[in-house]
Structure formats: structure tokens, C-alpha cells
């Protein structure tokens, strides 16, 4: 993520990123050795520094890119939606699809914040807060429109996000329920919780 | 957790356990060195083996003891409660109090399952499933009694537990809301979600 000249460089960087996610997911960030990461992608340990400045920055950029994609995805999902109930349904749908598709990155994003520098941690928390605030705003708009009456939109936005993200812990594409069935169950549950079933 | 003769042994074991939780919480299980753990409690690295058979077993016993206490606590909380709504309210109350009081152990319990042996992992999952099934049974009993109508008690039990456990991520005793206020918000939210507000 430092110098990446040409398409080979981009491919190598993608491979490093992918291998990094797998290693951190499996063993934890602190236990990850850069030498092992270089071996995973078939390059010399020294060459790794063409792509990564250091371990901590690698983690930061990994988490940052994931959050950027998450925020952009949500932006597209909610574009032009004024109705709060419709926006809430779309948020649930988007959050569940995105998080079940990227379980490993979600896990790392929740676990390895402890290994970030103070400055990088603040930046990541700022982005997470931005994402959470989209849901909070939807709940507030529903309050204003008389669609529902949520006493504490901030706490309830945390509650909804935690409940949806929890699906990562047990969801399997080969499980009892399809993704669409799960989304239907959670949508009904959340609409009931806010009083808009 | 192997040989613990006399009260000094028990105290040392408790100190090892406490130091272990802090280390795993901060750096991750794989990055924890037994030598550092011995230093934390002021004993020789070799003496540690009077208390711990090996690292993996230490983690297993740590998680197992936490789950045993959790299950026993819930048992006491629900003893003699027949009414499903009352049982649900008590479950929410108990889960929130217990998890906000023991954030570090909760974090480890959610993160470090990857480091357990297959047999130990199965044992821990069995205990977690037992805990989750108490909530599922409450939801089922509410269905049977006509108290509410929850379409998929298993999924909804996961959803409720994830949403409650999520409070660990942001709760602070010095925060905007007291523990009682948080419990009131979540109770109302969950009762709404199952249709029993």
C-alpha cells in the first residue's frame, strides 16, 4: 500500500491483503509474522516492504478499506430513499448481505481494534460512527414522520446493528435457512421492535 | 488448574486466571507467552506448570468456568418463573448485568474459540448452545401460551442475545445512561420485537 506500480503490483497487493485477512482471522493480528505473510503470497520478506510500510499500518489500511466499501455500499443502497420505513428495510437488507458475505473481515474489524495506534483507532471509530449514524438518522426521521416512536435512537441503532452483525456467527450458505429467509425474519423482528410491523 | 494445594495455591491460580484474561484480552491468545504470564503473577515460569497443564487447556478451563457461572446464574434467575413474559424480562436483565460486568471475558469467549482443540471447542459450543436454548425455550413457551407469536424462536434467540451482548462494545459505568436505563430501553425493544410490548 506504499508503492504499487503496474498491474502486477496491484495483484500482489490484493494477494497480500487476502492472505493477511486469513492469517489475522485464524491466529490474531499480534501472532501474525510478516515473514509468514510473504511466504503465503510467494514473495521475499524484504519485498513485502514495497507494499506495506509496517504491520500496524497494514491492519489500519485493511480496516479502512473495508469501512470505505461499506459506507459507499450503504450510500448507493439508500440513495433517493425518503421514506424512513423503506430506508430501514433497505439498511437491514444491505447490512445482512454485506456482513454474511465478508465474515472474516467483519470478525477482524471487531477484534483487532486493540492493535491500532491511537490516531488510526480514532480514524476507524470515526468511520464506524458514521455508518452507525446513518441508521440513527433513519430512526430519527421515522420519529419525526410519526412512522414509529423510538425512545433512544442511538442505543437502538447499536442494538439493531449488533443483532444483525451477530448473524455472522452462525450463518452458513448451506444452513437450514436461505439468506432471503433470514433477511425476512430479521426485518420483521426489527420492524416489530421499533413499532412499525 | 492441575494441582492446587491449600489456600495459597487457590490464590495463585486466581491470580493466573486474572492475568491470563487481561493478556488475552489485550494481545490475543496466540500472542500470549506463558513466561510473561508467570512474570505477571510473580512466579517462575516452571512453577506455572503446577497450575496449568498447557496453554490450550488454560484457555479451555477459563472459558468453561465462565460459561458454568453464566449457566448457574441464569438458572438462579429463572428458578420458579413460569410466566414467559416475566422470564424474558428476567433473561434480558440478567444477560445485560452479567455481560457488562465481565466485558473482558465476554470478548475472549467470542474471539478465541479458534484456538481451542476440536474436543474442547465442542464442549464450549455445547455449553453456549445450552445457554441459548434457555432463551429459545422461553420464546417457545410464549408462543404456546399465546403471549406472542415468534416465527423462528431459534433465530430470534440468536438475534436477541447478539443485540444484548453488543452493549459490551459501548457501555461505560460513566456513560450517558445508567445500567437501569439501558436495561429499560432493551427490555422495551425486545418486548416490541416479539410483539409483547
UniProtKB/TrEMBL annotation, chains A, B:
The keyword Membrane does not apply. Residues 33-52 bind DNA. Residues 10-70 form the HTH tetR-type domain. Keywords: DNA-binding, Transcription, Transcription regulation. Pfam families: TetR_C_24, TetR_N. It comes from the Bacteria. Coiled coil: none annotated. SUPFAM superfamilies: Homeodomain-like, Tetracyclin repressor-like, C-terminal domain. This is TetR/AcrR family transcriptional regulator. The keyword DNA-binding applies.
Amino acid at each position: 500500500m506504499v508503492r504499487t506500480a503496474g498491474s502486477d503490483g496491484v495483484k500482489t497487493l490484493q494477494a497480500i491483503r487476502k492472505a493477511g485477512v486469513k492469517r489475522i482471522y485464524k491466529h490474531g493480528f499480534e501472532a501474525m509474522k510478516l515473514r509468514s505473510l510473504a511466504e503465503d503470497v510467494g514473495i521475499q520478506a524484504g519485498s513485502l516492504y514495497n507494499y506495506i510500510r509496517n504491520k500496524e499500518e497494514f491492519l489500519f489500511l485493511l480496516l479502512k478499506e473495508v469501512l470505505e466499501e461499506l459506507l459507499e455500499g450503504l450510500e448507493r443502497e439508500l440513495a433517493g430513499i425518503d421514506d424512513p420505513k423503506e430506508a430501514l428495510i433497505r439498511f437491514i437488507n444491505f447490512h445482512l448481505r454485506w456482513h454474511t458475505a465478508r465474515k472474516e473481515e467483519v470478525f477482524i474489524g471487531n477484534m483487532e481494534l486493540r492493535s491500532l495506534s491511537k490516531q488510526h483507532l480514532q480514524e476507524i471509530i470515526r468511520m464506524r460512527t458514521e455508518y452507525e449514524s446513518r441508521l440513527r438518522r433513519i430512526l430519527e426521521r421515522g420519529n419525526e414522520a410519526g412512522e414509529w416512536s423510538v425512545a433512544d435512537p442511538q442505543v437502538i441503532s447499536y442494538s439493531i446493528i449488533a443483532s444483525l452483525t451477530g448473524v455472522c456467527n452462525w450463518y452458513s450458505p448451506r444452513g437450514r435457512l436461505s439468506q432471503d429467509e433470514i433477511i425476512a425474519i430479521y426485518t420483521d423482528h426489527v420492524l416489530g421492535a421499533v413499532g412499525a410491523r
